[in-house]
Specification:
Layout (H helix, E strand, L loop, with lengths): L4 E8 L15 H5 L7 H17 L4 E4 L7 H5 L7 H11 L1 H7 L11 E4 L9 E5 L6 H4 L2 H11 L6 E3 L17 E4 L8 E6 L17 H10 L7 E5 L2 H5 L9 E4 L2 E5 L6 H11 L5 E5 L6 H7 L5 E4 L5 E6 L1 H4 L1 H12 L4 E7 L2 H4 L9 E7 H5 L9 H14 L12 H17 L12
Parallel strand pairs: 1-2, 4-5, 7-8, 10-11, 13-14
Antiparallel strand pairs: 1-15, 3-4, 6-7, 9-10, 12-13
Helix pairs in contact: 2-16, 4-5, 16-17
Length: 444
């Protein structure tokens, strides 16, 4: 019997120190826009506006809080001592790379926060979470501990939830979360099939310029930890060539929802073999929507972030793509979207959203959300005030307007007032979201 369940988009709120540090090797937008002036207020409001659109479309929406930045315990653990402001000045002068890592804004992309398995798919009938260790990049690896604490707070009832610690922090177990994971199903409450995409294994990584971030061993470990039937999972390898062209995560080159898979023909190694295995593995018909190199080059796919659109199911049963404005501006990407909605498949609508502040840092609409399938009973077991409604939306708008700056340069990150502003804002946010103490500065 199918249980009624909902796919909820948990979006990351953009933090008050949103900045462009250019830290992510292989993320071309991040590298290109390094050190540009950012607008934290605009970034946060763009994110909230996207969440509001989803809510208006009838898609359940929830919130994950920003991470504390600067992350002073990280710097203190490396031997820097003294007052926070003095430590930041010293690190800025002696090791700019560490300074930028301590101020990284990348936690806004919650597609990398964790891999999640619904209770319908796990053999113990609980929802399983594994926060991503994000070992491939120093600045992102700093997110794992807080995400673990956040998930333990929100999903605290052991009757319904199992929150696992991040995997061992080693490149052989490098885990980038749901950005490399797709779940197929007929209905959200039915047993699903899991497609894990990886870029490297124990064998030598032959990438010349950019590293493959997700390891096969990490994906296999998550399958075991989450008690997924091995017959309900398939592991396929990214095409090494597209990683070289800036496809640092699978969600830059494909997107799935229920029984629809939209992908670029260059996305995977042995594409036709893998897709045949996928079709044979599921018990329902799949819509496999391919985009060719002739229609849209990998370079244009990366620039437009077309595949980083959110693919969602509306109350009518039709599907919609929540696409970045950039995919409307690029003619080839726009033509692909028009073709898709005109053909015989569930995708009937495209909504374009402005998330330019995120895009300039290398993340589109799908990067900003973590999809979590929950039943009504499981939602009721979450006591934190994280499920978005009109009241919470208005509260968060007021909170952003009160605490966020509308301009931030690299040198502004040395402003002592910014640290206090950020911590004050986050402390207030934990009360709004009823999360209790999650940040290290709250424990001092």
């Amino acid at each position: 019997m199918t249980r009624k369940a909902f796919e909820i988009n948990f979006d990351g709120l953009v933090g008050p120190t949103h900045n462009y540090a250019g830290l992510a090797l292989g993320n071309l937008a991040s590298e290109k826009n390094a050190y540009k002036i950012s607008n934290p207020k605009k970034a946060a409001l763009q994110g909230l506006n996207k969440m509001r659109l989803l809510l208006e479309l009838g898609i359940p929406q929830a919130i994950l809080p920003p991470h504390e930045r600067p992350l002073m315990p990280f710097l203190r653990n490396l031997g820097f001592a003294g007052k926070d402001v003095n430590i930041l000045k010293t690190v800025y002068q002696q090791s700019p790379e560490l300074f930028r890592a301590a101020y990284s804004a990348s936690s806004m992309w919650t597609a990398n926060a964790a891999t999640v398995t619904p209770s319908s798919d796990s053999q113990d009938n609980r929802v399983h979470f594994t926060p991503a260790n994000l070992t491939s990049n120093l600045h992102r690896s700093l997110e794992a501990d807080l995400y673990y604490r956040i998930f333990k707070k929100i999903f605290s009832n052991p009757k319904y939830f199992e929150v696992h610690p991040p995997l061992i922090s080693h490149l052989d177990f490098a885990d980038e979360g749901a950005a490399n994971h797709n779940r197929f199903c007929s209905e959200y409450g039915e047993k699903g099939f899991h497609l894990f995409v990886y870029g490297r294994s124990f064998e030598k990584n032959n990438i010349i310029r950019y590293p493959a971030r997700q390891s096969l061993q990490a994906s296999q470990s998550i399958m075991r930890l989450h008690k997924i039937d091995p017959n309900q999972a398939l592991f396929i390898k990214q095409n090494s060539r597209v990683i070289e062209e800036g496809v640092f995560h699978n969600d830059v080159i494909s997107v799935a929802n229920q029984n629809v898979f939209l992908y670029h023909q260059s996305a995977f190694q042995n594409l036709h073999l893998q897709l045949n295995l996928l079709k044979k593995s599921v018990s329902f018909p799949l819509y496999l929507l391919s985009v060719s190199d002739v229609e849209l080059s990998v370079k244009s796919a990366v620039k437009s972030y077309l595949f980083n659109s959110q693919l969602v199911t509306l109350n009518s049963g039709e599907m919609a793509l929540i696409a970045p404005f950039e995919s409307k501006k690029i003619p080839a990407a726009r033509r692909v979207l028009l073709r898709i909605v005109e053909e015989d498949n569930p995708i009937q609508l495209v909504h374009f959203v402005d998330c330019s502040q995120s895009m300039q840092n290398g993340g589109g609409p799908a990067c900003l959300r973590l999809r979590i399938v929950l039943t009504n009973e499981e939602m009721a077991a979450c006591k934190a005030n994280v499920f978005l409604d009109e009241t919470l939306y208005r509260q968060l708008l007021t909170w952003v307007e009160r605490h966020y700056r509308d301009k931030l340069t690299t040198k502004d990150l040395l402003d002592p007032a910014l640290i206090q502003e950020s911590y004050t804002a986050l402390d207030e946010l934990t009360r709004i979201l009823r999360l209790g103490t999650i940040y290290t500065f709250q424990k001092v």
